[in-house]
Design brief:
8 strands; single chain; 4-stranded mixed β-sheet; 4-stranded antiparallel β-sheet
């Protein structure tokens, strides 16, 4: 296995790998929408922080990240994040592929002072989760995804209705999130000192500092 810097010429095959990973998760989580295309991966080559794994001429996987930023995730560290579509690996040997790619990517990141590494992973991809946990990653958050259908035996309080927001109403969700943050600042609550969050499996993100 050879690890090279991710190049824009790798984007088309990388997208196929990322899409295959997404379709695997859709088999486990049918509520995920059908995706015909993914965001363009070529811009990930611009920061020279990504890597790709090859065996001969065959791409085995790729691992890229966003531009780093200071005080990542409310810490004093410079950090970066690799979203779902910014990495992928073939199913055969996936754990080793991810570990070899992270070894090379982490070397690049640390040399540039990037010490907080967060990588989004599909919750049902146990091989990838195990590979990163073996390398010291923890779990920072878990997103639960389910279809909008009634829950058996669950009845909303009088005067409250649940429905899916139309896309024109998306701003209302942001206002609610801001209000929740304001309330949290004024209330007493306890947070896991390790930054972990418990939740139902949907899609997950891990981080390493």
């Amino acid at each position: 296995m050879k690890i090279v810097e991710f190049d824009s010429a790798h984007a088309a095959v990388a997208a196929e790998l990322a899409m295959a990973d997404y379709e695997e998760e859709r088999e486990r989580v049918p509520a995920l929408p059908v995706m015909k295309t993914l965001p363009d991966l070529r811009p990930f080559a611009d920061n020279h922080l990504g890597v790709a794994a090859f065996e001969g001429d065959e791409m085995l996987g790729f691992l890229c990240c966003l531009e780093p930023w200071e005080h990542a995730f409310q810490t004093a560290a410079k950090g970066t994040f690799s979203p779902m579509h910014a990495h992928g690996a073939r199913k055969e040997g996936r754990g080793v592929i991810y570990q070899r790619m992270y070894q090379a990517a982490a070397e690049k990141w640390v040399k540039k002072g990037i010490t907080y590494h967060s990588i989004a992973l599909y919750a049902h991809e146990e091989t990838a989760l195990s590979a990163f946990f073996d390398y010291g990653f923890g779990r920072r958050c878990v997103d639960a995804i389910r279809s909008m259908e009634p829950l058996e035996g669950c009845f909303p309080p009088a005067g409250i209705a649940f429905r899916e927001l139309d896309w024109q109403e998306a701003g209302r969700a942001g206002s609610a999130q801001d209000a929740e943050g304001t309330y949290g600042e004024q209330s007493l609550f306890y947070e896991d000192p390790c930054g972990g969050t418990r939740g139902m499996p949907g899609t997950g993100a891990g981080d390493n500092e």
